From TrEMBL, chain A:
SUPFAM superfamilies (alphabetical): P-loop containing nucleoside triphosphate hydrolases
Gene3D superfamilies: P-loop containing nucleotide triphosphate hydrolases
Subcellular location: Cell inner membrane
UniProt record similarity statement: Belongs to the ABC transporter superfamily.
ABC transporter domain: residues covered: 21-279
Protein name as annotated: ATP-binding cassette domain-containing protein
UniProtKB/TrEMBL annotation, chain B:
Classification via Pfam families: ABC_tran, oligo_HPY
Topology term for the membrane: Peripheral membrane protein
InterPro entries (UniProt xref): AAA+_ATPase, ABC_Ni/Peptide_Import, ABC_transporter-like_ATP-bd, ABC_transporter-like_CS, Oligopep_ABC_C, P-loop_NTPase
Naturally occurring in which organism (per UniProt): Siculibacillus lacustris
Classification of source organism: Bacteria, Pseudomonadati, Pseudomonadota, Alphaproteobacteria, Hyphomicrobiales
Protein's name according to its UniProt entry: ABC transporter ATP-binding protein
One term of GO molecular function: ATP hydrolysis activity
Length: 343, 329
């Protein structure tokens, strides 16, 4: 758990217009203690896991911001809190300047805001109701948010949406099991688009797909962004996919952002030692069988994270200060050694 | 190949269904030499894992090997009785699976598992087997190996667990190791460590390795040769650099083009339309023909056989040759 100073916004998008999405000081603490009774019997203390720790970033209109990290980095937890599927322990998420779940915001306004945010999940087999027709799945947000009420108009809209994602309007009478994984992800995208959102959170949208199908979905998502001016928060563990899709990238390690920079700069000149290690570890197709120094160690257990900079036990550049002090995010990098210019 | 340790010839695997047999593996052949890593790559449903299952003799009904043969060091193993095959498996063939917990007994200390495996296949006293277990754990990079013998699988991290599985696969000094997606469940930084470990062990022990994976990046890092599978057939096979750098089969080329690269910006990815056919709907002729942008009339009726181009072989009537081979440039 972190004490002291909060690393604040080093993650400013290049655009002059105000960002669409602002996430500030986001935090999530999970209680993983044994039951109260067991704790009482054994005298064991409460155990808390800080899954997301003071995460701050902004996303400009029409921009793709990616969060990348290995398992346990907290990337999916951030995604879930941003869309409101998971309660925040602390922090603020605003879309277009309005707080997503601020009780002070009028109900109607919050409802309108909800409509602007949609989510696409990793597993296209689990995220679609198997008992519903594709038409009903895609129409649900249209009906729920009252975008359209006339059933003819809804049917026409569903047909348009299916065509938009590369399916046939006639597919609306079929059920999810009649489609392949890639086609199901297209259905999920059509459903997300049906509420006419401005902002889509994509949590590992292609991780369950084969590469040739992944290419279809990534191309489709890029096309839709161009056509509809969508803003994406893109969550992935796959660095090549992130490199391909993102304008800016945030690298998460054990719940903290360690580097936030434009995609090209991050890959051409990674600065945080963890980012460097991560990029170095990706198998390179263009330079096969180059003997490289494999990364050291594994991600520690988040229940008992290292003190100071979480990465210090694996870092080749570690100094005493790293063990004590949490580095703040300065110029997009949270590293004492980078900050003092020694690496 | 004269020094081939594992040799698969015209293997056909069928599944019995009410509507008749479905052919999941349709006549594949390959060899793996001592000290060589053959990567078997393909998308879901290509039949790569099933091929590995056949090599370790674990094809279960309704599946069966309908024809063809599998030889290990010259001896035919596809028609061995169960008990006989069980001895071959473990002693001569080591196995590594995607999920380390498939191979490890959660209730048993890893030392006991290793010692039991070692003593099943070699005449050793308990003390000798224990020393060998410590040696194996050290060899796969487990710190404080002697103490870790007493630990249960859940006390290890994912990467360490996969190292234990590799130690277990090596326990009897096998001739061949079949590794099915050994790094798929691991984070990328740990994956790099396991790849480096597998490469070193292959070199030091001179085993033949059949590495099954969907990840071309892993193949590029570790394999000497690669076989690309599509709908139960090998469509291209050859040295890994040749196949990746100058693919001849349009499917291989499409697959390579659809992989996002760390160096590419927002360039559009090459995409292959459609998806892998289901077993009950494999097209006539070349199984890839409905998705192929080079399709000829002939491809729809006649099945192409593997033919050699330079050092690779591809099953295609209109392979990508010469200057148009620079698809990935």
């Amino acid at each position: 758990m972190s004490e002291g100073e909060t690393p604040i916004a080093a993650a400013v998008p290049p655009a002059e217009v105000p960002p669409l999405v602002r996430v500030s000081d986001l935090r999530k603490v999970f209680d993983v203690s044994a039951s109260a009774l067991e704790r009482m019997m054994s005298g064991a203390p409460r155990r808390l896991v800080t899954a997301v720790d003071h995460v701050t970033f902004e996303i400009g209109r029409g921009e793709t911001f990616a969060l990348v990290g290995e398992s346990g980095s907290g990337k999916s937890t951030v995604a879930r809190m941003v869309v409101g599927l998971l309660e925040r322990s602390a922090g603020r998420v605003t879309i277009d300047g309005t707080a997503v779940d601020d009780p002070a915001t009028p109900r109607a306004e919050r409802q309108a805001l909800r409509r602007k945010i949609q989510m696409i999940f990793q597993d296209p087999y689990a995220s679609l109701n198997p008992r519903w027709t594709v038409g009903r799945i895609v129409a649900e947000p249209v009906v729920t948010f009252g975008v359209l009420t006339d059933s003819r108009a809804i049917e026409r809209r569903v047909g348009e949406l299916l065509a938009l994602v590369g399916l046939a309007p006639a597919d609306r009478v079929k059920y999810p099991h009649q489609f392949s994984g890639g086609q199901r992800q297209r259905i999920a995208i059509a459903r997300a688009l049906s509420a006419e959102p401005a902002f889509i959170v994509c949590d590992e949208p292609t991780s369950a797909l084969d590469v040739s199908v992944q290419a279809q979905i990534l191309n489709l998502m890029a096309d839709l962004q161009d056509r509809l001016g969508l803003t994406y928060l893109f969550i992935s563990h796959n660095l090549a996919v992130v490199r391909h899709m993102a304008d800016r990238i945030g690298v998460l390690y054990l719940g903290r952002l360690v580097e936030v920079r434009p995609a090209r700069a991050l890959f051409d000149d990674p600065r945080h030692p963890y980012t460097r290690m991560l990029i170095e570890a990706v198998p390179d197709l263009e330079a096969p069988s180059v003997v490289r120094d494999p990364a050291r160690g594994e991600i520690p257990n988040p229940i008992d994270p290292p003190t100071g900079c979480h990465f210090h036990p694996r870092c080749p550049h570690v100094v005493e200060r790293c063990r004590r002090e949490v580095p703040a995010l300065l110029d997009g990098v949270a590293c004492h050694r980078v900050a003092d210019g020694s690496i | 190949m004269t020094d081939s340790v594992l040799s698969v010839r015209d293997l056909v695997i069928e599944f019995a269904t009410r509507r008749g047999p479905l052919r999941a593996i349709d006549g594949i052949s390959f060899d793996i030499a001592k000290g060589e890593v053959l990567g078997v790559v393909g998308e879901s449903g290509a039949g790569k894992s099933l091929t590995g299952t056949a090599v370790i003799g674990l094809v279960e009904p309704p599946g069966r090997i309908a024809s063809g043969e599998i030889r290990l060091a010259g001896r035919r193993i596809d028609n061995l009785p169960r008990d006989e095959m069980r001895k071959v498996r473990g002693k001569q063939i080591g196995m590594i699976f995607q999920d380390p917990l498939t191979s490890l007994d959660p209730l048993m200390k890893i030392g006991d598992q290793l010692i039991e495996t070692i003593r099943t296949h070699a005449a050793m006293t308990w003390a000798q087997a224990r020393d060998r277990a410590v040696f194996l754990l050290e060899e796969v990079g487990i710190p404080a190996a002697a103490e870790r013998l007493m630990a249960h699988p859940h006390e290890f991290s994912g990467g360490m667990r996969q190292r234990v599985v590799i130690a277990l696969a090596l326990a009897a000094g096998p001739d061949v190791v079949v590794a099915d997606e050994p790094t798929t469940a691991l984070d990328v930084s740990v994956q790099a460590q396991i790849i480096a470990l597998l490469r070193r062990l292959t070199r030091d022990h001179g085993m033949a390795v059949m590495l099954i994976t969907h990840d071309m990046g892993v193949i590029a890092q570790i394999a000497d040769r690669v076989a690309v599978m599509y709908a139960g057939r090998i469509v291209e096979i050859g040295p890994v650099r040749e196949v990746i750098g100058r693919p001849h089969h349009p499917y291989t080329a499409g697959l390579m083009g659809s992989i996002p690269s760390l160096r590419s910006d927002h360039a559009r990815l090459r995409q292959i339309p459609g998806s892998m056919p289901r077993l009950d709907a494999i097209p006539q002729g070349c199984a890839f023909n409905p998705r192929c942008d080079r399709v000829l009339d002939r491809c729809r009726v006649e099945r192409p056989q593997l033919a050699s181009f330079d050092r690779t072989a591809a099953a295609c009537f209109d392979p990508i040759l010469g200057h148009d081979a620079e698809v990935r440039a």
